[in-house]
Please model this.
Amino acid sequence: MKLIVLVKEVPDTYGDRKLNLETGLADRGASEAVLDEISERALEAALTYADANPGTEVVALAAAPAGSVSTVRKALGMGADRAIHVADEALAGADIVLTAQVLAAAIKRDGFDLVISGNVSTDGSGGMVPAAIAEYLEVPQLTGLSEIEITDSKVSGTRPIDGGAQRVSAQLPAVVSITEAFPDPRFPSFKGIMAAKKKPFETVSLADLGVRADDPEVARSIMLSIAEKPPREAGIKIVDDGEAGKDLADFLLKNRLA
Amino acid sequence: MFEFTDDQLALQAMVRQFAQEELAPNALDWDERKHFPVDVLHRAGELGMGAIYVDEEFGGSGLTRCDAAMIFEELAHADPTISAYISIHNMVTWMIDTYGDRQQRARWVPVLADMGVLSSYCLTEPGVGSDAAALTTRAVRDGDHYVINGTKQFISGAGVSGIYLVMVRTQDTGHAGISTIVVEEGTPGLSFGPEEKKMGWHAQPTRQVVFENVRVPVANRLGAEGAGFGIAMSGLNGGRLNIGACSIGGGQAALDKSVDYLKERTAFGGPLINQQSILFQLADMEIELVTARTLLWRAADALDRGADDAVKLCAIAKKVATDAGFTVANAAIQLHGGYGYLTEYGLEKIARDLRVHQILEGSNEIMRLIVGRIVAEE
Model:
């Protein structure tokens, strides 16, 4: 069984997250770069399966700037067998479709039984990449799973929906994405961290994958303008001079909050 | 030596995350309830923290003393008490791995490395502290066994630990008559005093360990008969670095809390941090900590290399670091005013915890004695 886990470097959720107003790109210097926690949960799901099923190969796959090596390597420290890092300057500001195209090309090139991804990253929050990858790979997708079971030929799980939960399953090969309902990820052990640098770490470019970022035949989203979030305005303070209840009700009605 | 490698940065990131998620949020609660979190220690062990600078052959992590200094500082930033206990445990694991034969190492190192079994270092006695060579707990040979009688004092982890590394007298020849013996929990005649009430370190138990005709196989002795004093002292070299690192971590936490607080606290028309007298105080705290950390890394490097001056540097670093940590923690209380005196703010706990670091692993007076004697001999 070969599991490919998508791992993403993101700005630390607990730090300042900024956009560069000139380039429209995330300002990577504004905060610490970390492995997205949902990526770690996806990896945990793969490693849990691998722990119970010897012979399983777990590959961490990232599309990230060249400087992201230590973040990707954390996946190796946690226990992935090897890493593939797609690093190419042409990927700066890549949209969902290009990102999915590149990751799908890397997955296809390597071969796979199951791709496991987080459902949505904490920075871009698009949530479409896993589905797009499944389309490119022409395999079934089970998205937004809160539980997973993997057998030799099949993957199944539970997908919460409004007012209920779906039981879903697919034949392998397939793509799944998981939610924060999955168990907390493990810490990399000292031994894992020290062993990580000895594990295979492959860096590939777009040319290696045969993908063109500027292919005129493919539609790409283009950012036309970007603006800083306006500063928050102070709220309205209602002082209780005997009429506060009425004032509050008026406020709620006026703002259609009632 | 003065810049972390990529590996060290990755180790630090993991320990920091572990400490901030598993220790920091619970530190005040454990302190208040006097709760010894053996489950959390076991998780730390599974990550490699029970045998940090121990050979990998029987489950050690194979890291350096410099790595250990960085690790204990990170743990202590979250909770000095837990970090200090892990330091003591590492000292025992290292001593068994270093001075034990293959059978002893294979038997004890794996269970100590993952902290499924905890350990206690038993040197001090009710009437014997700094003058350790005068210890009186006696082991008398009886065939293939030793029969141990005596009492050990101030023993961290006592009553919970599974393994007691005990320095005993096998001959009446001063320090040359001391041997090191492993005593396992449950051995008949092994008992413990009541939990000591103490100023700090509430999240780890301290008790007397009492030996009444405790029979232990001779195979439990580490190294040769009479080698115990040297074993005990060599363990302490690393222990001194570790406890120094615990003080720096606690002091750094106190400084970090102070900076945050002084930016928010306003008086005399603005944030307190704008007052020059405050800045000078913060600078003094930073100077103490950076000085201590730099010296500690140098001593750790000397111990890693087996340098001739390692013993002296470890003693100097232990004194400087444990004094620095307490001074900074105490200053942080003052900077917080009345809030520093409240338990809720966490400052008084740090000061209470760090105070004992100036006393144990060889008191700071003994550190001066070691340094003074070496200077006089040079």
